[in-house]
């Protein structure tokens, strides 16, 4: 029977395929003891699981080599070696033979023992092995328990829709968009970093479905609609037909994209609006151009570190930054330094488990504490400034001291580059993201040390309203139109104008039609967004008048509730934009 579940839209697009239940994480292993006569069979089962895991890892290594290259593929080597490690094998066999434990229980116990032993050290090599160990344990235990291999996403054979409690950025890095058609989760929100990555990979995603993991069965047919936030399990023939007709409409829209991309981005009353793209991967530069981006307002660099267990080298980084700078020879490219922590954890950094990771060791704080990692990135960035208008942007800055410290590091690295005769642009620009109330309130001070501000509304909203951006239960409270958010953006725009520096917005709010309208009204006319949204926002820009936006923004600034703010903006936008065309995509309800 058909089941329809509604959640929140997180990445556009629709998909039809079979459900694949992603059971990532440690499985529950029942405590089973065996008779002496079963020992041999359990030993064989253990060896079979080991051989299977080895074959899968070799396969994964080969396919990663084809997709990403030989260096990336090496991340699987420690796990392959570990499967034959005498400590692992003999210890497990002892538990089976002497303690009469089932193969899975014996393996689990031995691995817990090794984990405890190895975590006593702080040697980075051993800690690296711990991460590999965890991955391996999950893989082998699921096999022994007769489950799917949860980490085996790269070798899925069919077009599938992944169903999971939630995702992570590093799991996303394992996905192959050729085999995975969409993602549906119980939890999560549109601004979770994995959802941002899904949009970059053009993978439709629906989050906050509540209990999709208990309702969806393995292999069941499903239709996922990332625009309105819905999943239909066992769709009826009528639903299939409606899916096909929507697919045809999307294909037609695809044809419009080239036409819109070539149009000028100017309001009906003549105000030019600069539209830039947010990129999560360098390969997206081409698509961003095709969608009409004139530059890159936010190039997130975490792809270089998340899901990897070695630090990226200077040369690799330099090539990545340079390739994006060269893709936009006449536009600015804002590269953000590593924004780690929160929900993005590279394996090699051994980030501590924290009670509140979004309030913890994150972004600029991590970089300033890890000079090796940070200096390498700064050098690579400086070298890339020789190839275009590349600007350096710092995430989660709270005070001027952090900017001063970065300027000092940059000064030292510039000196070293000069001594070595390596080219860079000494007139490079450095700016900050305004993502915390501290930065917004201190904008006047920060402006003295910065060449630009870019407002990161995703975090600014989260920190202003004390609402975790990844928490589905709170998604109704995560409101970009809260008066406190609107006033802070207004204040930052004013300060930036007075200081003569550029103020742009690169958070999701820029791709929300009502959000963009408000930002124009606050005199922010440089917006950066996930490139799939660019054509729609440009269409809207051409339909509105900047004067209407300014008037509506003045009224919104005087409003005392989010509802009032949105009502005043809706009134201002009037009939110039068909809001219904946009409405389903936002967890925030827009009054109709
Ligand atoms: C933001 O916080 O608005 C932003 C653009 O950065 P991210 O979403 O990567 O945290
Ligand atoms: Mg942010």
Could you characterize the architecture of this molecule?
- The strands form two sheets. The chain has an eight-stranded mixed β-sheet. It has an eight-stranded parallel β-sheet with strand order 15-14-13-12-11-10-9-16.
- α5 (103-119) runs antiparallel to α6 (124-144).
- The chain has 24 helices and 16 strands.
- It has helices at 39-68, 70-73, 77-82, 86-97, 103-119, 124-144, 169-174, 193-200, 212-215, 237-261, 285-290, 314-327, 364-369, 371-384, 400-420, 437-441, 443-447, 457-465, 483-499, 513-521, 534-543, 546-557, 562-573, 580-583; strands at 3-6, 8-11, 14-21, 160-164, 180-185, 205-207, 221-225, 230-233, 274-279, 296-299, 332-336, 389-394, 429-434, 452-455, 502-505, 526-530.
- It has four domains: 3-24 and 155-248, Glucose Oxidase, domain 1; 38-145, Enzyme I, Chain A, domain 2, CATH 1.10.274; 256-272 and 453-592, Alpha-Beta Barrel (TIM Barrel); 274-428, Alpha-Beta Barrel (TIM Barrel).
- It is of the alpha/beta class and 592 residues long.
- The two termini are 33 Å apart.
- Number of folding domains? 4
The main pleated sheet reads as: 8 strands, mixed
Estimated helix fraction: 40-55%
- The counted number of beta strands is 16
CATH architecture of the largest domain: Alpha-Beta Barrel
Number of helices: 24
Name the average pLDDT.
89
User: Which strand order does the major sheet show?
Assistant: 1-8-7-3-4-5-6-2
Low-confidence stretches: 583-592
Shape: globular
End-to-end C-alpha gap: 33 Å
The CATH topology annotation of the largest domain reads as TIM Barrel
Return Rg in Å: 25 Å
Q: Which structural class is indicated by helix and strand composition?
A: alpha/beta
CATH homologous superfamily title of the largest domain: Phosphoenolpyruvate-binding domains
β-strand percent reads 5-15%
Small-molecule components bound:
phosphoenolpyruvate, magnesium ion
Would you state the CATH class of the largest domain?
A: Alpha Beta
